[in-house]
Design brief:
By secondary structure, the chain is α/β, with parallel strands linked by helices. It contains 16 helices and 15 strands.
């Protein structure tokens, strides 16, 4: 008898090397990408299981394939747990990704060419919120709002002005690179006035929302979409919650409208992560994400970094590197070589190309999972400062990488996993 991993090592040594290399990278480096996390071994077990073999087109107890009685239990549990976690009327756990969750909402409620008002990608929105190179921007008539130049905050006056001028069928709120709380109630007021549906993409903040550490959008929105792998700390995937009146249209659009067989291994893994999120310790984890983000933001500000909007209310911060004479591309590369992973990110009103950018985005969900607290966040800020001050110095990168490795050894990502 062998474990699945042993079979991989023997069957495909090249991919096994990818697995071991990535495991080592994750153990020895500090993950600061705001949209990533470190899932529980039980989530990994569900993902890497025989559940991937099963076709289950349809929904629990109404499938188009035989033999679904076992996997039905997983989808029922995922749905029940998600509803308990978020307090929503209805949920669909089948979207393969956040993009498909958003697509499902647009397709279930709108016609091609309809107007949607959403946050500009260049100000922190998302590709699927109407970028010209994405299906959303190609199929729908997106109008965008952004943040104020003075304080980096969403300009609700601009949202209302555009909503009344363009009369969108839907307003989308939520973002991928916005460090402040988003007020769903205020968006609801505008949507009601304009006669628009309201969708909130909570992908980044889902864990904070579930623990009520971010103002709850569920009571105010027709649809709430999310990924399951960011602050929620589940497997890579998507999910849509909605008011009861939209349930039928949504389910019909996800299957058979857009997707075929659901990924039952991913749905089972979602169920596991929701069970973990319903445990009291998940609230402590989410609180610590916020404490760590604040500690990191304060320390970086102390070093003279310019944080968009002056700080953070959530798990992430956006550094505008222009006052340090650096680009996002240069800083991402230098930090990566020092064992600190971030992503370059446009800042509002950026003058650099998206492949260069003037900023980096930093988040605390993954480091918080491995047990970092405020002292470790101060060390992280210190390393970022040292690299920024001497960005071309390869010897410094190597030295920092050793220090990073030593700290990571004290906080293993998977202490109990073989
Ligand atoms: N969700 C995006 C991110 O924030 O990294 C990628 O699409």
């Amino acid at each position: 008898m062998r474990t699945a991993k042993q079979f991989l090592a023997v069957t495909d040594p090249e991919i096994y090397a990818v697995y071991t290399g990535e495991r080592k990278r994750q153990e020895e480096g500090i993950e600061l990408i705001a949209s990533e996390n470190i899932v529980h071994p039980a989530v990994l077990a569900a993902l890497g299981s025989v559940l991937t073999n099963k076709y289950a087109e349809g929904y629990p107890h109404a499938r188009y394939y035989g033999g679904c009685e076992v996997v039905d239990v997983a989808e029922d549990l995922a749905r029940e747990r998600a509803k308990k976690l978020f307090g929503c009327d209805h949920v669909n756990v089948q979207p393969h990704s956040g993009s498909q969750a958003n697509m499902a909402v647009y397709f279930a409620t709108l016609q091609a060419g309809d107007t949607i008002l959403a946050m500009d990608l260049a100000h922190g929105g998302h590709l699927t919120h109407g970028s010209a190179v994405n299906f959303s921007g190609k199929l729908f008539n997106f109008v965008h709002y952004g943040v104020r130049k003075e304080d980096g905050r969403i300009d609700m006056d601009d949202v209302e002005k555009k909503a009344m001028e363009f009369r969108p069928k839907m307003i989308v709120c939520g973002a991928s690179a916005y460090p402040r709380e988003i007020d769903a109630e205020a968006f609801y007021g505008v949507a009601k006035k304009a006669g628009a549906l309201l969708m909130f993409d909570i992908a980044h903040i889902a864990g904070l929302v579930a623990m009520k550490l971010h103002k709850d959008p569920v009571p105010w929105c027709d649809f709430v979409t999310t990924t399951t792998h960011k602050t929620l700390r589940g497997p890579r995937g998507g999910m849509v919650m909605c008011r009861a009146e939209h349930a039928k249209a949504l389910d019909k659009m996800i299957f058979p409208g857009m997707q075929g067989g659901p990924l039952m291994h991913a749905i089972a893994a979602k169920a596991v992560s929701f069970k973990l999120a319903l445990e009291p310790s998940f609230k402590d984890y989410q609180k610590q994400i916020l404490i760590n983000a604040k500690a990191l933001a304060d320390a970086l500000t102390g070093y003279g970094f310019n944080l968009v909007s002056g700080g953070t209310d959530n798990h992430m911060m956006l550094l505008d590197l222009r006052n340090r004479g650096l680009t996002g591309k240069v800083m991402e590369h230098a930090l990566n070589q020092a064992g600190l992973t971030v992503n370059k990110n446009a800042v509002p009103f950026d003058t650099e190309k998206p492949t260069i950018t003037s900023g980096i985005r930093i988040g605390t969900p993954a480091v918080t999972t491995r047990g970092f607290g405020e002292p470790e966040m101060k060390r992280v800020a210190g390393w970022i400062e040292r690299i920024a001050k001497d960005v071309e110095n390869e010897g410094l990168r190597k030295a920092v990488k050793e220090e990073v490795r030593a700290l990571c050894a004290e906080f293993p990502a998977y202490p109990d996993l073989e």
